[in-house]
């Protein structure tokens, strides 16, 4: 079994980015380097190039992060990905460097930050080092003993308090009195020792190299703050950011030597934990400094000692390279703002991986990621799809030898399973949604066997065919109380089987598909017998209040038949136990039961307190702050952004009907809204839908991208197909219950 999993790990790494061989470069650092926590290394190399090639890709790797300058120009601001394509291997970046080179002498400078410790998002190799290789005919730049390298002593540790144990990053202290001025520029005359070769490529502890599967970060450049104010005592600058963002702080001051400036954001204790901060120790005179480790928040705070004159402060935002190409708007300002905050929260929880939060943990918890990857299809450009794909490979490459899948992964100090999160991950809303909405099935063959092993060997069913509840390492179904785990586990398992069956058919594994189909049939046949009380779903022996999550999951899984919808709606009008994580599924169930008006009403009721904080641009981990929060209560948790998906997907009705939106439907559920519009960016182009309702009339305008087809489906079941182009469809005649749009007539045509 051990050899089986090692083989799978290798296969997964190759599939996720092609582990490379035949490297000419070596891992290098300096003789003095001991790879301690929070080590910073400066590297230089001068190379002569007779004629710059048209293209030259440098392959660069480091544990953990690096910054690259060529001929004094900043080329990469924070390169590298946190380690973990598998538990043993490392990512490398392909970087096009030809535009920065010149005929003749060239100076290459690299600053490396070695975290030197593991966390919930990174596994430490224990080796601070750089690997650099750029080779084409006539040009060979490789990391070897000809490079110069030194420990950069100006970078230091702060005193306590330190970042909480979940973070691999340390606080950064920079003592400008020890600055190596100009070390990264041509003509530097300071002395640096030659580098030492410390390892070949492909061996422990850095392992195989896997190409970076996501874009380099977008660098928005240094910008002024929205506003700057001083504290009444004059010792602190409060600098407002335009929104909650991932930023590095910059300052320009005049000061005597030895003054300590403390730098942090308003999220320094986000999630009730110490997160990252920075310190700057001044040299004498006018000086500039940018702290390179990113922080997040709505406000940067510079705490100034006496004698420091501030000349300028700025910030640099960096983040995942994607665009906000999706949109939603309607006649209800509350819903517009909720969609906007959901999108902002989604973006700030994207970087090396999808994160639960950008402050307390920065961890790829897959319960969070399932919600996040769904939101991305409606809010962001297709470049965002690569981040979830990276996460899929990581999750499965980290599978334990006993078959258990766990998150967060990668992680150097956590290997525990949350069973329901894992079922959600490999299932319909996780892996299958990533495939179906992106149209990319490339990962399916590489993960199927491991997924199958997890669902059929780790999990077991009883004689009736219902799944046997497992505690795992952490029996977690949601934050809050009144969680009916028996119902939930069967619903999540059923959805996981549903996804697995689709993958089996895709791969031609008909025997697997048949067996999975029989298992699904058994669950469907026995589900009501065990859990239906006549008015709600409840597990035998469950003593809590009726769980709104359980009713919702019964609906969205398809295990609850339509005849039970009236009773389930009554439950959902009474019970409100779900955290923002599971509330997404409660609201989705209401749309599925044709209750759009109540879905929007409940959405507004549930999110009212969270939205009643105008100073925040992001959504919370719980429904409020402090006692109203869950799990420590961060103010930026993208799992809360389920309304973003539902407003675009259900209210405007845009959903794919074949992989990648090659065909899609527009099935609007406007509830009491009179106007609603949405844009969805696909690989084929943008889908645009605009809806207007006046009295008994409703009009839809839609843009269908080239290479796709659309079907408009009205709530009465009438349909009309549309080819690429811009179209409108009109219906008149409202029938049915309040909040639904029962349309009796049909007109349509090309505008």
Describe this structure in words.
The protein has 751 residues and is of the alpha+beta class. The chain folds into 4 domains: 19-212, Sandwich (Jelly Rolls), CATH 2.60.120.260; 220-319, Galactose-binding domain-like (Jelly Rolls, Sandwich); 327-531 and 545-651, Alpha/alpha barrel (Glycosyltransferase); 659-750, Maltose phosphorylase, domain 3, CATH 2.60.420. The chain has 14 helices and 32 strands. The strands form 6 sheets. Strands 11, 12, 15, 16, 17, 18, 19, 20, 21 and 22 form a 10-stranded mixed β-sheet that branches. The longest helix is centred in the middle third of the chain and has 22 residues, at 485-506. The radius of gyration is 27 Å and the shape is globular. Mean pLDDT is 94; it is low at 1-19 and 734-751.
Helix % is: 25-40%
Shape: globular
- Largest pleated sheet: 10 strands, mixed
What class do helices, strands and sheet pairing give?
Answer: alpha+beta
Number of domains: 4
* Count of strand segments: 32
**Residue runs with pLDDT of under 50 for 5 or more positions:** 1-19, 734-751
CATH architecture of the largest domain: Alpha/alpha barrel
| Spatial separation of the terminal alpha carbons | 62 Å
Oligomer: single chain
Overall pLDDT: 94
Give the count of helical stretches. 14
% residues in beta strands = 25-35%
Fold-level CATH name of the largest domain: Glycosyltransferase
């Amino acid at each position: 079994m051990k050899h089986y999993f090692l083989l799978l790990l290798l296969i997964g790494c190759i599939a996720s980015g092609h582990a490379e061989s035949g490297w000419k470069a070596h891992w290098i650092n300096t003789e003095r380097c001991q790879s301690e926590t929070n080590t910073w290394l400066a590297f230089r190399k001068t190379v002569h190039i007779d004629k710059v090639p048209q293209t030259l890709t440098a392959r660069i790797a480091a544990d953990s992060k690096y910054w690259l300058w060529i001929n004094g120009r900043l080329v990469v601001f924070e390169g590298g990905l946190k380690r973990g394509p598998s538990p043993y291997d490392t990512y490398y970046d392909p970087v096009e460097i030809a535009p920065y080179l010149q005929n003749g002498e060239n100076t290459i400078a690299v600053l490396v930050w070695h975290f030197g410790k593991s966390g919930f998002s990174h596994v430490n190799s224990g080796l601070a080092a750089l690997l650099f290789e750029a080779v084409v005919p006539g040009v060979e730049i490789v990391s070897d003993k000809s490079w110069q390298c030194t420990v950069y002593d100006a970078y230091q540790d702060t005193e306590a308090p330190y970042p909480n144990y979940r973070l691999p990053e340390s606080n950064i202290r920079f003592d400008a009195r020890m600055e190596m001025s100009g070390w990264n520029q041509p003509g530097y005359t300071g002395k640096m020792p030659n580098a030492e070769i410390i390892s070949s490529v492909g061996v422990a502890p850095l392992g195989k190299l896997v190409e970076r599967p996501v874009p380099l970060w977008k660098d928005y450049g240094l910008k002024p703050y929205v506003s700057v104010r001083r504290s009444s005592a004059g010792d602190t600058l409060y600098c407002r950011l335009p929104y909650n963002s991932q930023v590095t702080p910059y300052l320009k001051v005049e000061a005597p030597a030895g003054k300590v400036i403390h730098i942090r954001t308003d999220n320094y204790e986000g999630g009730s934990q110490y997160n990252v901060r920075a310190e700057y120790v001044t040299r004498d005179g006018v000086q500039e400094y940018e702290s390179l480790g990113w922080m997040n928040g709505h406000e940067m705070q510079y705490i100034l000692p006496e004698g420091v004159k501030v000349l300028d402060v700025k910030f640099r935002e960096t983040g995942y390279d994607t665009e906000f190409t999706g949109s939603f708007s309607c006649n209800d300002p509350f819903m517009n703002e909720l969609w906007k905050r959901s999108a902002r929260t989604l973006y700030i929880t994207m970087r090396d991986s999808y994160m639960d939060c950008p402050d307390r943990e920065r961890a790829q918890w897959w319960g969070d990621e399932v919600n996040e990857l769904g939101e991305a299809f409606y809010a962001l450009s297709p470049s965002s799809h690569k981040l979830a794909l990276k996460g899929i490979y990581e999750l499965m490459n980290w599978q334990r030898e006993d078959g258990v899948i766990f998150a967060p992964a990668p992680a150097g100090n956590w290997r525990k399973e949350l069973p329901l999160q894992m079922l959600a991950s490999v299932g319909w809303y996780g892996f299958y949604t990533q495939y179906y909405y992106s149209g990319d099935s490339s990962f399916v063959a590489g993960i199927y066997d491991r997924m199958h092993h997890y669902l059929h060997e780790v999990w077991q069913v009883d004689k009736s065919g219902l799944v046997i509840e497992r505690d795992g390492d952490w029996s977690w179904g949601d934050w809050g109380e009144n969680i009916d785990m028996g119902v939930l586990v069967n619903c999540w398992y059923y959805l996981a089987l549903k996804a697995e069956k689709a993958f089996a058919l895709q791969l031609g594994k008909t025997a697997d598909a048949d067996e999975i189909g029989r298992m699904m049939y058994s669950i469907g046949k026995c589900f009501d017998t065990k859990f239906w009380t006549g008015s709600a779903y409840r597990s035998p022996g469950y003593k809590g209040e009726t769980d709104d999550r359980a009713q919702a999951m019964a609906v969205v899984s398809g295990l609850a038949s339509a005849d039970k919808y009236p009773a389930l709606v009554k439950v959902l009008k009474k019970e409100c136990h779900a955290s923002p994580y599971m509330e997404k599924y409660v609201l989705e169930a209401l749309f599925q039961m044709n209750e759009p008006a109540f879905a929007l009403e409940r959405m507004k009721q549930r999110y009212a307190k969270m939205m009643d904080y105008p100073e925040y641009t992001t959504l919370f981990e719980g429904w409020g702050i402090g006692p109203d929060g869950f799990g420590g209560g961060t103010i930026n948790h993208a799992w809360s952004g389920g309304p973003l998906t539902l407003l675009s997907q259900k209210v405007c009705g845009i959903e794919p009907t074949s992989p990648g939106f090659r065909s899609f439907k527009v099935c609007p559920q406007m509830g009491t809204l009179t106007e609603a519009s949405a844009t969805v960016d696909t690989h084929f182009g943008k889908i645009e839908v605009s809806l207007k309702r006046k009295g008994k009339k409703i009009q839809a305008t839609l843009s269908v991208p080239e290479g796709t087809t659309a079907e408009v489906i009205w709530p009465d079941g009438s349909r009309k197909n549309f080819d690429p182009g811009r179209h409108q469809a009109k219906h008149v005649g409202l029938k049915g219950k309040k909040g639904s749009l029962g349309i009796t007539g049909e007109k349509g045509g090309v505008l």
